[in-house]
Amino acid sequence: MTESKSFVMYKEWERHFDMLEDEEVGRLMRAVFAFVAREEEPEDDESDRRSKAEADALEEYHQSLKWAQEEYLSSIQAEKFEASKNHSIYHKGDYQYIENLSSLFEMPLGNVEIGGDIFDLNVRTVRGGRLFATFGLGSPTGAIKIRCSEEKLGLSRDVINELKDGQFVAVRGSLENDQRNGNMRQVFAHYIDQLPPHPLRDDPEEEKRVELHLHTNMSQMDGIPDVADYVKLAKHM
């Protein structure tokens, strides 16, 4: 079951309570909560102690709870579908600032504002001579694909040409489903603004630490940064 803070109980369940002893009602409700919260089934030794009325009640409750959960999920999917039909990726404004990029894959479609570092940049010329670009936008909270195109009333050719891997940027655009890639989430950019580069970390110690061994992205092991990044940081310190 999906994680939720509530579940449905039906008035008709009272008829089962009338057939059970107080101890059985307590045991039954404990089993219901275990099923709802963790999908736990009764242990074999517990099942042996249950009366037929208690066992029948628990089975009916399980079926009712599963049905209610399916109905709830169906309603959520219907709401998302209706929202996607009414959402235009070209509508600008009403941007919601999202700090955690991973939450973009769970929230409803709409206009968002996000920030991160560009990676895997790809720029090409399409029909009519316009520029089209895709890139990943990453931060410590996650990553998402960005797509953008040169438009008269949107991004200019200069803005797209100035994009580079490693740049720290803010993107305002429309959160959408990529129908060419299994409906994975992506953002269609309306605006891309360069931000000041991340500050380099400082080494306040009087006695400096010397790194005797490291890997760059030329390594086939675990290196990620470019050697130029290491040199720049060492010079800064």
Explain what this protein looks like in three dimensions.
With 237 residues, the chain is of the alpha/beta class. It has a 5-stranded mixed barrel with strand order 2-3-4-6-5. The radius of gyration is 28 Å and the shape is elongated. 14% of the residues are buried. The model has no long low-confidence stretch (mean pLDDT 78).
> Percent helix among the residues?
25-40%
Shape: elongated
Kindly name the structural category.
alpha/beta
Order of helical and strand elements: HHHHEEEEHEEH
Q: Cα distance, first to last residue?
A: 52 Å
State the strand order across the main sheet. 2-3-4-6-5
**Cα gyration radius (Å):** 28 Å
Total beta strand runs = 6
Give keywords:
237 residues, alpha/beta, 5-stranded mixed β-barrel, elongated
Summarize the structure.
The protein has 237 residues and is α/β, with parallel strands linked by helices. The chain has helices spanning 14-17, 22-38, 44-49, 52-85, 157-161, 227-236; strands at 96-97, 110-125, 131-139, 142-149, 168-178, 184-194. A hairpin with a 5-residue loop joins strand 2 and strand 3.
